[in-house]
Amino acid sequence: MSFKLSKKDIVKEIIKSGKDPAYFINNYCRIAHPMKGLISFKTYPYQDDLLRDFNDFRFNVILKARQLGISTITAAYCVWLMLFHRDKNVLVIATKYATAANLVKKVKHIMKNLPEWLIVSEIVIDNRTSFELSNGSGIKPASTSGDAGRSEALSLLVIDEAAHIEGLQELWTGLYPTLSTGGRCIALSTPNGVGNWFHKTYVDAEVGENDFHPVNLPWDVHPERDQKWFEKETKNMSRRQIAQELECNFNTSGETVVHPDDLAWLNNLHKEPAYRVGYDRNFWIWEKYQEGSDYLMVADVARGDGADNSVFHIIKLNTMEIVAEYQGKPNLDMYSQMLHSAATEYGKCLLVVENNGIGISVLEKLISMGYENLYYSIKSTHEFIEASVAETNEKAVPGFTTSTKTRPLIVAKLEEFIRNKLITIYSQRTFNEFKTFIWNNGKPQAMRSYHDDLIMALAIGCWVRDTALQVNQRDVEYKKAILDSMYIKTNKINTAIKGMDGYEQDFNKKYSKEMQLTKDFAWIFKG
C-alpha cells in the first residue's frame, strides 16, 4: 500500500496484519530478487498453505524440491511471529553455521524493509548474525554442536536442510525439551537418502507415529513450472539428482533390497485399512474372512527388550493379498491370544510362527490353547509336515526357524514376489520398512535404528507359500500316485463258478494281499 494512511487506518492494518501472516506478507514484506532487486513478496498458493500449517500445527516437516522459496516464506513467517508477539525466541540451525546465519539475514532484511509505521517493535540489539526486538523477541543461528540451544526455552526452532545435518538425531534429543513449553518446529529439506533423522521423522509423520505434520512439495507445485521447464532443468542432471532435487524421492541410492522402481509400484498400492481394531487399534484389516478362501498367517515375536514389535500378516493365498496386519507391543499371553483369535477368525488357517528366541514360548502357549493348524517342519530341513502327524515324528519342530542359512532365501523369495508383482501390500507401515531395508555388507537388513519385523514375517510367508506348501502338495500327489499303482482294480469281476469268464482261483487271497499292502503304506498319506 503506497498511499498515505490515516492513523485510524494504520491501527486497522496493524491489527489485520497481526492476525493474518499471509495478509501481512503479501501486503508489506519485500524480498531481494537476484535480477529485479527489492520486490514485493507475493505468495503462491502452496506458500499460503504452509503459513496455515505453521499456525495450525506445532511441528511441521517439509519435504521439498529446491528453489520453491520455502526458506524465504519461513523467514517471512519468523518476521510476523517476532513482530506481533512478545518474547518469541527463534533459533535457526542448518548444515553449517553460515547457512543458518543466512536465513537469519533474510529475516533481518525483511524486517528492515517494512513500512516504518508497521514496525511496532524496533530492533534494539543488532549483531552481525542475530538481533533482538524491543518486545523481547529475538532470533539467532546456531551451530550443529551437541549443546546447540540446550539452555534456552524456544518459541520456534527452524531446521534448514535437515536431511543434510549429520548427527541430527542426537541434536534433536537435546533440542526437543527446549520446546516443551509450547514451542514449535519447522524442519525443511530436500531429501538426502534414507535413514537420517529427517527421513525417519517424515515417514513416521505420514503414518501418524509422531507429532509432526508432513508436507510434500515436489517441483510441480510451483504454478510457473511445467513439463517444458522440467525437461530444461533436468537436461544435465543424473537420475539421482532429479529424484533428490526435484521429485522429493528418498529412495534414489540403489542400496535398498527392493529396487526403487518396485518401491514406487508398492507405494501406489497403499490403501487405508477398512478397520483398525484391537486393544491398541494396531490390528489393521483390509478384508474380512471370505468363505471358500484359503489363508496363511505368519507371525514374528518381539525379542522382549522393547526395542522391536510383535507382528503378523494374514495372506489370502489365491490372490496373495495382505488382508490383515498387526504391529505392536503386547505381552506374550495377550499376543498368543491375539494370534489364536485372528487365525481362528480366518478359517483356522495355517499359522506360521517364527520360533527364534521367545517365539517358542508363544508356540507353546498356542499348543496349550489347542490350536490345531500350526506350522511344523522337520528339524534342519524345513520340510513342512502337518500338525496332525507332527506328534509322531520326533524330528518335528513347531514354527519356522530364521537362520543365517534361511534368511537370504526367504528375503530373495519376497523380493521375487515383489519384482514380479505377485503380491499386494496395502500397508504404509510395511512399505516404510521397505524404504529402509538395505544391503549391508552383502546382508539384507534394516538400517540402524529402523526395524524389519513386518518384512521378515512377510518373507517367511512368501517362502512357505511358494516353497514348503507347494513342495508338500507335489509330494502328496506323488505319493498318492505311487500308492495308486499298488491298488488292485476293484472293477474286476470274480465268479464263484469255475470255468466261467472272470473266475480267478486265487482272487480272495490276492485281494487280501492288496488290502494289507494298502494298510501297510497308509503312513504315506500322513507324512
Descriptive report:
This protein is of the alpha/beta class and 527 residues long. The strands form 5 sheets. An 8-stranded mixed sheet has the order 5-6-7-4-8-9-3-10, sandwiched between helices. The protein is built from 18 helices and 21 strands. The chain folds into 3 domains: 247 residues, Rossmann fold, CATH 3.40.50.300; 203 residues, Nucleotidyltransferase, domain 5 (2-Layer Sandwich); 39 residues, no CATH class. α3 crosses α4, α4 packs across α5 and α14 crosses α16. Helix content is 39%, strand content 18%. The chain is elongated, with a radius of gyration of 33 Å.
Main attributes of the structure:
527 residues; 21 strands; Rossmann fold; 18 helices; 8-stranded mixed β-sheet; 39% helix; 6-stranded mixed β-sheet; single chain; Nucleotidyltransferase, domain 5
For the biggest β-sheet, the strand order reads 5-6-7-4-8-9-3-10
Helix-residue proportion: 25-40%
Q: Structural class, from secondary structure content?
A: alpha/beta
Low-confidence stretches: 487-503, 510-515, 517-527
**Biggest sheet, in brief?**
8 strands, mixed
Number of domain modules: 3
CATH topology assignment of the largest domain: Rossmann fold
Total number of helices: 18
CATH H-level superfamily title of the largest domain: P-loop containing nucleotide triphosphate hydrolases
Roughly what fraction of the amino acids lie in strands? 15-25%
Number-wise, the strands total: 21
The CATH C-level class name of the largest domain: Alpha Beta
- Radius of gyration, CA atoms, in whole angstroms: 33 Å
